[in-house]
Amino acid sequence: MLILLPPSEGKAAPGRGRPLELKSLSLPSLTPARERVLDALVAMCRDQPDYAATVLGLSRTQFDLVTRNATLADAPTARADRVYDGVLYEALGLDTLSTTAKRRAASRLAITSSLFGLVRVGDRIPAYRLSGDACMPGLGPVAGWWRESLGPAVVDALGKGLLVDLRSSMYAGFWRPPAELAPRVATVRVLHEVAGRRQVVSHFNKATKGRLVRALLEDGGDPRTPAGLAELLSDLGWTVEMEEPTKKGTQLDVVVSEV
User: Fold this and answer.
1) For the residues 134-152, what does the mean pLDDT come to?
2) Dihedral sign of CA atoms 210, 211, 214, 220 in order
3) What are the Cα distances from residue 2, in Å, to 42, 159, 217?
4) I want to staple 171 with a disulfide (CB 3.0 to 4.6 A). Which of 112, 128, 153, 217 is the partner?
5) What does the pLDDT look like over 42-55, one tens digit per residue?
């Protein structure tokens, strides 16, 4: 099973640690693409800081993030699971998983990244600022860039297992599973139900996905189909409704009334 997670917009900056080594990251087939994005981001932030702030959607009070991006090649790194934070990662609580669940996290989780394409939780990365909807000089739209190179790496990491896609819509645009993978693709939508009315609420969505992944890692089950995943989640206490399969995969709705 391969679980695709979105990144967090905010990141915890490592205070110390060895500098970035792109060739040490998982999925080495992505190294050339990573080099191009890194070089483009560093050059833009170093040479055109005011323009970079606009591209990155930053206010004047966030200008330190432009400066940080300009020095990414030499910035200290830490494990990705300590750099990415936010609601989903707080709910997932990777650092408090059991030893066995942590081993599963290392092999089953992959985090989508505008800068690195895809990283594993143990990959050492610096804190950076680059949203999935950015468009950079000499590179173009970040999503379009990764759309050209991410697919083979994801398929290789997936192997013959089930793909559980928890990415947000922005990062889902980096790569969409081809039709031939559809029988092994499950997407998850979280619906908040109050007084019989259901809606998608960002906080509930992120927190529930974090708790859901935590439960899967602790349980250790390895379903091979979307139906098998729905059954496992139901056994773990979640309310799950499965939609009809499509050429894009099968959507599972997880219905919650509270976080």
Assistant:
1) 93
2) negative
3) 31, 9, 11
4) 112
5) 999 999 999 999 99
With tokens 């189909």, the residue in question is 225
Q: DSSP H helical segments within the chain, as ranges? A: 31-47, 49-55, 63-70, 80-83, 87-92, 99-108, 142-147, 150-158, 169-172, 202-219, 226-235
183: its two tokens = 């029988």
Instruction: Confirm if 161 and 232 have CB atoms less than 8 A apart.
Output: no
Q: Are 129 and 65 in contact (CB under 8 A)?
A: yes
- pLDDT for residue 202: 67
Torsion region of 77: left, alpha or beta (phi above 0 gives left; psi -120 to 50 gives alpha):
beta
Tell how many helices (H) and how many strands (E) occur in the chain.
11, 12
77: containing domain: 2-256
Residue 28 neighbours by CB under 8 Å, 6+ apart: none
Using an 8 Å Cβ cutoff, are 180 and 245 in contact? no
**In Å, how far from its chain's centre is CA 147?**
15
Q: How far apart are CA 22 and CA 36, in angstroms?
A: 11
Q: Against a cut of 0.70, is the pTM above it?
A: yes
pLDDT digits (tens, 9 = 90+) for 14-42: 989 999 999 999 999 999 999 999 999 99
